Amino acid sequence: MQNFLNLCKSTIGEENVLLDAQQQAPYLQDWRQREVGKALAILRPASTEQVAKLVQLCIDYAVPIVPQGGNTGLVFGSIPDHSGKAVVISLQRLNKIRQIDVANNTITVDAGCLLQNIQAEAEQVDMLFPLSLASEGSCSIGGNLSTNAGGTAVLRYGNARELCLGLEVVTANAEIWNGLRGLRKDNTGYDLRDLFIGAEGTLGIITGVVLKLFPKPRSYGTAFISLTSIGHAVKLLTLAKQHCHANLTGFELINSVSLELVHQHFPQYQRIFQHTSQFYVLLELSSYESEEKAYQQLEQLITAAFEAEFITDAVIANSIAQAKNCWALRESISSAQAKEGKNIKHDISLPISVVADFVDDAGQCLEQAFPGCRMVTFGHLGDGNLHFNVSPPIGDVHEFFLTHQAQINRIVHDKTHQYGGSISAEHGIGTLKKEELTRYKSSVELQLMHTIKRAMDPHNIMNPGKIL
Predict the structure, then answer these.
(1) Which segments constitute the FAD-binding PCMH-type domain (predicted)?
(2) Which fold has domain 97-215?
(3) Same fold for the pair 2-90 and 219-334
């Protein structure tokens, strides 16, 4: 492999071929520090052309490739296996803003651009790029598209897929497909763009992206609401859609366990209510009208919700600081759960109409199998995406609890499938859920996926072992 490595050095510069174990370490460990892979080298190209040349070298020398953006994935999709045969092609140096087209409401960027930087560039021209994630300061847009990331504004703006108009991709045959078209209508054959979005780097490497921009809202309205059941939260969501229409931007569900973990581990965040409730909703409106109009719309919604007895209490943020405190409580749940100890995470989606029944049914099954287990349930109820996480009983030995992970996953995923849901809403499959996929995808679906993989990656070098 020395000749291969020498050719890589001549292509991208010796300083961008990382062989030292200490230099490689950040690229080999997953975001939650559960798994560490091994790589032949970390390759850091600075252009699409360099990526293509590296892919051709990998074809010539039969070297597997693991494409990597910000390495913030949660299903081991962006790290190599333990064989040490693969190279990681990091896109961190492909981080340029290529063009902003205000008239077309688009921004064209390198795939290695951080999500936060794209948001900031849009802000500079008084526009909005609405994809918003807790990891936005670290994740890259190429990775967001590779997993079809969701976030907190899907209800109004859609997933990453809906926010992307065009792609530039280095294929598994080392060819460059330039699909950077900022078109909203283009019915000229198969939609190649959608094949690469959500494929987790198994079909090619995304190197450039055309994204939709939106006019920046003039005002926001934020409310934190307490409820006694998820059934009431679903009714509140229906009511909010009727009252707020397109202004309804975020609708986040938080159960009492989730919120108390945040207050326990992040006491700097102010409590909204002195009493506790079974569930809470964090609701956000964004409007092109005045703040007074947004506040009035929220007030009318909450009044109607009280009259219908869907909610027990509500607070409308009357300052930016209060709104930020509300969102900090929501966005700190995962960090609080990590501070509490090891836990078992599930990223599922369900038809909104069955969410309440699923939570009750799955929760009862888990309580019967593991008495005292704590359900940390939160997520984007507005689009049916729940983070249905399980923490051990207070005082339990976490390692013992995690030995039952397979049984817990089976309960949750079987129930998800029973209720017509998906075992992965926005995190992807990677290797973590690969075996689970075969349980819930039909043989027809799996065969079609294998056919696409063989056709588009004939050398089987593009993130092999992930998804399929």
Answers:
(1) 35-216
(2) 3.30.465
(3) no
